[in-house]
Amino acid sequence: AGSGKFFVGGNWKCNGTKDSLSKLVSDLNSAALESDVDIVVAPPFVYIDQVKNSLSDRIEIAAQNCWTGKGGAFTGEISVEQIKDLDCNWVVLGHSERRHIIGEDDQFIGKKAAYALNQNIGVIACIGELLEEREAGKTFDVCFQQLKAFADAVPSWDKIVIAYEPVWAIGTGKVATPEQAQEVHAAVRDWLSKNVSADVASKTRIIYGGSVNGGNCAELAKQEDIDGFLVGGASLKGPEFATIINSVS
Ligand code: PEP
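Above: the input record for the complex with phosphoenolpyruvate. Below: its predicted structure, written as tokens.
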């Protein structure tokens, strides 16, 4: 891990029921968690209020998506104002499932990021390459293009955490090696230094996501430019998520 405060996010995706999430919340409330870590969980929208009202204040809440602007006649969407109304301070944007399953593009994602930041909500900005892009030697090109779309849109970098999530590692059990992740994280930091500023490059947390679990987190956390994790599957298991949070090194 680098010098910034370690950041661990749990992306619950489209999982859970009132009962299963109540059990997860109680497991998290009773877990011993390192104090020097920012912890954020992203429940499905419909359970945010339940989780906010039962989860320890030690853990912040993120939404998994948001609309591009103020609410209104946008059926099925959730506005940043509504997210804030539930005391949610973060939103996950650019997740590979939204890019590749739902079809969100860089420009649309950039618009959402700009609006969220202007409304003072933090953004977990996800980037990452597909397997065929990695195999074609395009990992950096793809990540830099996605990063540039965020950089072109956002008003400031104070409330952005970048999540590098190689798509081939998400939900597949195929984690990137610590060296593979470190290589991209270092390149992202270098890109920020050259294209935004040295200050933003040194202060922005770059977290890794893709099949992180209780068994592989410690080795990944040792890497110089890995400042935390975005965790999917393993964040649905309280004790294992606690192990990942406590892997800060
Ligand atoms: C994610 O979706 O952000 C993720 C990293 O999922 P998983 O940990 O299940 O690979």
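Notes for the reader.
The pocket of phosphoenolpyruvate is lined by residues 11, 165, 170-171, 209-212, 230-234 (CB under 6 Å).
Residues 117 and 123 are 7 Å apart (CA to CA).
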